[in-house]
Amino acid sequence: AKELGKNNWVIFDEKMNEQVIRTSKLENGLKNALHSHEFMVYYQPQYLIKGKKLFGYEALIRWYNPEFGFVTPDSFIGLAETTGIINDIGYFVINEACKFILELDERGWKDITISVNVSPIQLSNQMFEDKVMNIIEYYGIRPERLCFEVTETAVMQSFKDNVDKLARLRKKGFKISLDDFGTGYSSLSYLKSIPVSEVKIDRSFINDICKKDEMNVKLVRAIIEISHDFGFKVVAEGVEENSQLDMLAGMNCDMVQGYLFSKPVPSEEALRISDNCMQG
Ligand code: C2E
Ligand code: CA
Ligand code: CA
Ligand code: CA
Which ligand is nearest to the CA of 72? Predict the structure, then answer.
């Protein structure tokens, strides 16, 4: 038994070691990814429920590395944050989003909004506002065309600073979306002090909305009502089924996004989606 115990330790150790090696490999990969053009931005369409009109797209980063293959954002964003690489990744995404906006412009879509995810690290970076202004000025894009998706947790960390910063961005014309709404703490009371233009109900609530879970239905309805009272638009993410769409329409939700309409797709494909909307 002692012998076995010893072996277990060895196995455990090796596993830990593997983990450490993998993380440091991933970290090195991440450091080179921008220069090696391994990142791509995919776009997922968002629609107004009323009139079934295309409203915008959410920009979502994709990383393909020759050694690791596709690495999902959930497994590298955290690492990008702790290493600070997230700042450059973020500016890359905003740059790409601006190029995409110009392509939409050319096709006659002059007021489509592109939403980009902004991590707490990015938001608290002192250069963020200036950099963003430089980028949109370079492309000649109005701030109204961009929406920054922030999570409650992002705002909670150094609340005053981040709220001030968001308020300034909002004043300049940028839209602000409160992402993953309902998953954090003290959501409702903070709504009044965060300068958002839109609230995005987390996928987990939408998932359960048709499972005869009365509490969940009431919760979603309440979130939509309160958001409207505050003057915010409401987006539901992760809509996969028609039954969910019907429920949300009945609750006066403003916008929807999810696999029911489209997965996130490369820009060329996203442009085709907008072309088809024009015809339809
Ligand atoms: P998120 O901002 O909540 O993004 C929504 C996630 O749900 C995306 O996963 C999207 O592909 C997925 N999704 C969309 N519709 C559906 C659906 O109908 N069903 C299901 N099951 N999933 C759906 P993704 O692209 O893997 O991104 C995961 C997270 O990584 C994002 O969550 C966001 O927090 C982060 N992320 C992605 N791109 C960026 C980025 O450019 N910058 C930063 N800071 N974070 C990013
Ligand atoms: Ca998001
Ligand atoms: Ca979300
Ligand atoms: Ca999320």
Answer: 1
Structure confidence at residue 12 (pLDDT):
61
The amino acid present at 125, given as its one-letter code, is: N
Both structure tokens of 83: 């290493």
User: Ligand 1: which residue has its CA nearest to atom 25?
Assistant: 60
* Residues, CB-to-ion distance under 5 Å, ligand 3: 179-180
Q: What is the pLDDT of residues 211-253, one digit of tens each?
A: 777 888 999 999 999 999 999 999 999 999 999 999 999 999 9
Question: Is the whole model's pTM more than 0.90, yes or no?
Answer: yes
CB of 60 sitting under 6 A from ligand 1: yes
Q: What would the 3-class secondary structure string for the chain be?
A: CHHHHHHHHHHHHHHHHHHHHHHHHHHHHHHHHCCCCCEEEEEEEEEECHHHEEEEEEEEEEEEECCCEEECHHHHHHHHHHHCCHHHHHHHHHHHHHHHHHHHHHCCCCCCEEEEECCHHHHHCCCHHHHHHHHHHHHCCCHHHEEEEEEHHHHHCCHHHHHHHHHHHHHHCCEEEEEEECCCCCHHHHHCCCCCCEEEECHHHHHHCCCCCHHHHHHHHHHHHHHHHCCCEEEECCCCCHHHHHHHHHCCCCEECCCCCCCCEEHHHHHHHHHHHHHC
Torsion of CA 34, 172, 98, 103, to 10 degrees: 170
- Rounded to 5 degrees, what angle do the CA atoms 93, 98, 99 make? 100
Do 268 and 57 form a contact (C-beta atoms < 8 A)?
Answer: no
